[in-house]
Design goal:
The chain is an alpha/beta fold and 153 residues long. Helix content is 35%, strand content 19%. The strands form two sheets. A five-stranded parallel β-sheet has the order 3-2-4-5-6, with helices on both faces. Strands 1-7 form a two-stranded parallel sheet. Helix 2 runs parallel beside helix 3 (85-94). The longest helix is centred in the N-terminal third of the chain and has 13 residues, at 36-48. The radius of gyration is 14 Å and the shape is globular. The protein starts with 6 loop residues before the first strand and ends in an 11-residue tail after the last helix. 35% of the residues are buried.
Length: 153
């Protein structure tokens, strides 16, 4: 996927997403994505919104970073080299340091069977590429609130 098609927005053309949760503490976010353009663009956007962001290019590196950094949110591509995003999610759910993290699948797969598989692997959310940045920002505002997956970290 090229950089120009990595994100979508439903807001006014030319308007930048805003962090409506100003004053809230920044989230620790881990992006596991093998497309460098997508990963770095998304990381930069999330940093501009005030979040602490780390990036891993494959599942193995992502698992190691997650264990060391205890992210509140993991944004994980499903088609990674060496280990699928589904396997990454299963392992993150089994690890004490990340079992409460909010896991978000990033994928081009949008069918009901795809959504079922991500849910069964342990993902909390299933977001379709190109990402709707406004929807991602809305989702991030719910992390750490009562009832969210990362509320107790």
């Amino acid at each position: 996927m090229n950089q120009t098609s990595a994100f979508a927005t439903t807001s006014t053309p030319g308007a930048e997403p805003t962090n409506d949760s100003a004053g809230d503490p920044p989230l620790r976010i881990l992006i596991i994505e093998d497309s460098e353009d997508v990963a770095e663009s998304l990381a930069e956007l999330l940093r501009l919104l005030g979040h602490e962001v780390s990036v891993a290019a494959d599942g193995k590196a992502g698992l190691a970073m997650a264990d060391a950094e205890r992210p509140q949110v993991v944004l994980c591509d499903l088609t990674l080299p060496g280990m699928s995003g589904l396997e990454v999610a299963t392992r993150l759910r089994a690890a004490p340091m990340t079992q409460q993290s909010t896991l978000v699948a990033l994928t081009g797969w949008s069918g009901s069977e795809d959504r079922r598989r991500t849910r069964e692997a342990g993902f909390d959310h299933h977001m379709i590429k190109p990402l709707d940045i406004d929807a991602l920002c809305a989702l991030l505002r719910t992390v750490g609130t009562p009832g969210s997956a990362a509320a107790h970290q």
